[in-house]
Write a structure and sequence with these properties.
By secondary structure, the chain is mainly α. The chain is about 60% helix and about 5% strand. A two-stranded antiparallel ribbon has the order 1-2.
Length: about 240
């Protein structure tokens, strides 16, 4: 839509005008541009962005599942306070309304399970783990996501009970409370079709020596794996379990 081109203009007046002309939804990238205007340096543009988003929430029409999927596609941005650090109370209120919008969590689940393997969706996963937005989705992502990278990130986070990342040179960490899923995730990760996921699970077992999640069926299937990258760790685990 032409209005989306206006909201990236160098002129605040043109950005404000462009926002006033948006009455429907386009691709996720278009919606993300609207969300970014909540952080615009011009107060009038921020106010126009609030009005636009409220109008979209009232209308809620669009492709790919409607507004919930557009919000889900921009959840990493909405949860990133550094990228939205100019917002005042009205902008923060509408951003919170987007995060709580009906169907958003289910849309995030669908995207992280079945969405493309591109880095945008992977960044969204990292953002929701950092923010603690939807930890209850992680066990299913660890086992069922069609993207091996997302299975790896979710599995490691559950197994180690934490997620660590770098932010402007600082090491940050967030604890997770998903211990009840550890044994289940160990078993699924060891037999994951991705050698990278299995490698990480083997590393966890060797490091922690916590074998409570293993059963004979999992061990037998694991010992049959042929990937060269896994053989050294499988050999170590074989010695630990006496096979």
């Amino acid at each position: 839509m032409a209005a989306l081109a206006f909201i990236t203009s160098r002129s605040g007046f043109v950005r404000e005008l462009g926002l006033s002309r948006i009455d429907g939804l386009g691709p996720n990238i278009g919606f993300a541009l609207v969300v970014l205007r909540l952080n615009d340096r011009v107060p009038e543009v921020r106010a126009a962005a609030v009005n636009t988003i409220e109008r979209l929430m009232r209308n809620d029409v669009g492709p790919n599942g409607g507004l919930a999927f557009n919000i889900a596609g921009s959840i990493g941005l909405l949860l990133n306070s550094k990228k939205l650090n100019r917002m005042s109370q009205p902008e923060r209120a509408v951003a919170e309304a987007l995060i709580r919008y009906p169907g958003v969590k289910e849309a995030i689940r669908s995207i992280l399970l079945f969405g493309s393997t591109g880095d945008h969706n992977n960044q969204n996963l990292r953002a929701i783990i950092q923010a603690g937005f939807a930890d209850d989705l992680l066990p299913e992502i660890a086992e069922r996501s069609e993207c091996s990278y997302r299975r790896l990130i979710a599995s490691r986070s559950i197994l180690y009970g934490k997620y660590s990342w770098k932010d402007e040179g600082r090491s940050l960490e967030r604890k997770l409370g998903l211990d009840a899923y550890t044994a289940q995730v160990v078993r699924s990760a060891l037999l994951d079709k991705s050698a990278n996921v299995a490698f990480a699970a083997l590393g966890y077992l060797i490091e922690t020596r916590d074998l409570r999640g293993l059963d004979n069926r999992t061990v037998e299937k694991l010992l049959m794996r042929q990937e060269a990258s896994l053989q050294r760790r499988i050999g170590v685990l074989r010695g630990m379990v006496g096979k």
